[in-house]
């Protein structure tokens, strides 16, 4: 079995080579956030107050959607404590940044910081991990879903990126609700509901047509942008017994101007090594990772990663492969035989337990 190391092990090897300022909060990140916030407010006002042609409203919606997503990336950084460290200010700024995506700071820190980062790609403990064949055997819903032909399922999976972040946030509210202290449950619920109340209130103020262009369409666009990153973060990587970011995470590459506007969200392996470090310094972390462990580090262009997601299923087989149970096709994962430039598969052995599940799925 391949030897895994924890994120702390890697961080300890790289830390001596990083400047001390890399471990300090970087409040200057808020300036770009302010630009996005003013852009959102201005765009909503323009759509609501002026009777613009549908083309202009659509263009403004695209800008709003881009800004919604970018604010979400900033909120992610803020709630990791990399922008400000004062707890009440961190949560306030994080709530403002996540307002367009309707996610509260306490829920996000529980779901993302305390659970996903600690148990990344652990099938049982990571709420963002995709299931394995054992889960397929236990779930009628999954077996029904996997009866749908692969190409049709891939199309709907990519279409669902326009709603998936919102849907998953709602699911996480139910998933973690009982894990909060009773005194905090009301706060978590209030933080979740206030954004929705404000956006639904906007509907009654400006009418459906203006609301569609000022919130609903931008939300769909923002979901797609955010989920395009999140989908590539881990879904081509294996499930792992040790939280090893070089095994379970993928960094994608995008143009430098996109990295600037998206707060270096593409540097995902680096983020899992140093979640409490400002993403401003992730390019430096990347240099050291590629120098020290070039054969373990995974990166590829964003579009190539999305294409690989389209061409492979999202069900794990023996932890380190991906399987299409209806056809019995098994694909590698990153570090385990997957070549994104030439995606190939092998067949499940008919006599195995997985082969029997495959036969049941196909009925």
UniProtKB/TrEMBL annotation:
The terms under GO molecular function for this entry are:
oxidoreductase activity, acting on paired donors, with incorporation or reduction of molecular oxygen
The alphabetized UniProt keywords are: Membrane, Oxidoreductase, Transmembrane, Transmembrane helix
Q: Which domain of life is it from?
A: Bacteria
Enzyme Commission number(s) from the entry: 1.14.19.-
Q: Extract one GO BP annotation from the record.
A: lipid biosynthetic process
CDD domains cross-referenced by the UniProt entry: Delta6-FADS-like
Q: Which residues cross the membrane?
A: 30-50, 56-76, 144-165, 186-205, 211-230
Domain Fatty acid desaturase: from-to ranges: 56-300
InterPro entries on file? FA_desaturase_dom (IPR005804), Fatty_acid_desaturase (IPR012171)
Q: What is this protein called?
A: Acyl-CoA desaturase
**Organism from which the protein derives:** Anoxybacteroides rupiense
């Amino acid at each position: 079995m391949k030897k895994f190391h924890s994120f702390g092990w890697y961080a300890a090897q790289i830390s001596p080579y990083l400047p001390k300022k890399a471990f300090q909060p970087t409040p200057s990140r808020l300036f770009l956030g302010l630009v996005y916030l003013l852009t959102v407010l201005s765009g909503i006002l323009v759509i609501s107050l002026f009777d613009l042609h549908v083309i202009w409203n659509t263009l403004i919606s695209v800008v709003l959607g881009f800004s919604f997503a970018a604010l979400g990336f900033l909120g992610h950084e803020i709630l990791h404590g990399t922008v400000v460290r004062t707890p009440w200010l961190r949560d306030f700024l994080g709530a403002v940044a996540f307002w367009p995506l309707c996610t509260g700071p306490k829920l996000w820190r529980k779901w993302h910081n305390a659970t996903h980062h600690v148990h990344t790609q652990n099938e049982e403990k990571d709420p963002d991990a995709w299931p394995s064949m054992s889960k397929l055997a236990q779930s009628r819903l999954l077996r029904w879903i996997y009866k749908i032909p692969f190409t049709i399922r891939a199309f709907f999976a990519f279409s669902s990126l326009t709603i998936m972040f919102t849907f998953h946030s709602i699911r996480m509210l139910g998933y973690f609700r009982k894990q909060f202290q009773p005194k905090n449950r009301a706060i978590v619920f209030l933080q979740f509901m206030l954004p929705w109340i404000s956006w639904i209130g906007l509907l009654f103020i400006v009418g459906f047509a203006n609301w569609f262009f000022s919130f609903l369409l931008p939300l769909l666009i923002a979901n797609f942008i955010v989920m395009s990153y999140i989908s590539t973060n881990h879904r081509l990587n294996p499930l792992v017994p040790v939280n090893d970011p070089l095994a379970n995470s993928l960094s994608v590459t995008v143009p430098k101007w996109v990295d600037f506007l998206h707060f270096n969200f593409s540097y995902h392996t680096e983020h899992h090594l140093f979640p409490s470090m400002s993403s401003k310094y992730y390019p430096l972390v990347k240099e050291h990772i590629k120098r020290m462990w070039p054969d373990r580090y995974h990166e590829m262009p964003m579009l190539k990663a999305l294409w690989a997601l389209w061409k492979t299923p999202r069900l794990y087989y023996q932890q380190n492969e991906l399987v299409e149970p209806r056809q019995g096709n098994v694909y590698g994962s990153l570090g385990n035989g997957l070549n994104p430039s030439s995606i190939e598969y092998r067949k499940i052995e008919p006599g195995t337990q997985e082969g029997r599940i495959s036969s049941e799925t196909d009925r």
